[in-house]
Amino acid sequence: MKSRYTLSEFLDVARLQTLQDNFSQSMMIALVVVDETGAPVTSPSGFSDFCLRARAHPNRATYCYQSDNAGGRAAMLAGKPVVYRCCCGFVEFAVPIMINGHYLGAFIAGQVNVEKEKEQTIPYILHNRPVMPDNPWPIDRNHTTPRMPYQRLESTARTLLQVASYLVEQAWTNTVQRELHQKERELSEALHKRIEIERSLHEAEFKALSYQINPHFLFNILNTISRLAFLENAQRTEAMVHDFSDMMRYLLRKNNQQFITLGQEINYVKSYLSVQKVRMADRFTYQFDIDEKYFSVLCPFLFLQPLIENFFNYVVEPREVKSSLLIRAMDNGHDIIIDVTDNGDGISPEDIENILSGRKKRQQGSIGISNIQERMRLLFGQDDALTINSAYRPMMGTTVSVRFHLHSPPAKESNDVPYRDRGR
Description:
By secondary structure, the protein is α+β, with helices and mostly antiparallel strands. The protein has helices at residues 7-10, 13-27, 49-56, 58-78, 116-119, 141-144, 150-211, 215-231, 235-254, 262-280, 305-316, 349-357, 366-380; strands at 30-35, 82-85, 91-99, 102-112, 259-261, 284-289, 298-300, 323-331, 335-342, 386-390, 398-405.
């Protein structure tokens, strides 16, 4: 719940103006509403010609605003209406407008004369400073100022206090109800999102179970195929079965972890590239430029594969020319940066912006890129962990860079057999 408000955002100024006009007319008294600094929030009602002329002059109006501010502050401290004389000698009173002990402003009313004996006992709110010493028009303030019995002035002040209290209570109730309704709506939306997420997770778990293959059965079959290839002297088939076996072991045994080592991720990518080599022969080449010192760095599970897959989908397969891929790593002392660079025809600046913003969900592999972005944001709190740079010219290529901490949260313990590090 908001703890501090300004008068204009807490109360409806238009309705306040209507109330002020009617109250001023019925009680035959000048009235204006000021904020916590003494500046008027409403247009003056029932003001004397003298005061209107005074407030029309910027320098003279300053005295009036100071007087209004001082009266409102005095009423705030007293917690009730305060009667005083303004700097011109008019008898006025201030009624505080407060909410939960916070001063919003005040009703300033009066510009009257009361019984002489009583008026002499009413103090000036400020030092008596004449507002119009150079008054160009003849005016006798004492004769033109309306008179009001002091008892009636006090009664009017008490009535206005009750009106102000009612307005504040009603506005506070409406504000509380509005903010509670807003919070209920936000909670409802959050609950709906949570239900949707839980439903998606259940669906994902069910799908994972429905596709789950007994790892022992799978690897026994792959080992049998590999042994058969060895006996038949089919070396390429044997190598491909080993590569595919490593890929499946990685996916089946690591898919419940958020972090693995970069060396394990690279070995998986190498297995994937080896399988693609058999499928596509000499249509592409690839190179790794990654120092072994980075192999122990923890990285998100399966973050490179979507980028490599994009290389085949959008660079290798659509073209007849030979494609190349370079995967390299570097660091700035705090983060490690993985660059995946191809020699394709590039991506336009507009498409890059749309991909990174998520506006084009199916543009140039943006689904995989969006997933990587979201995972980086959740794991590391980084919104700019993935960047795309492209010259957008034939054969000039595109570089996708992924950045994450050199020292990531620890991954879960794993009993996996280390993958073979096969360089190409």
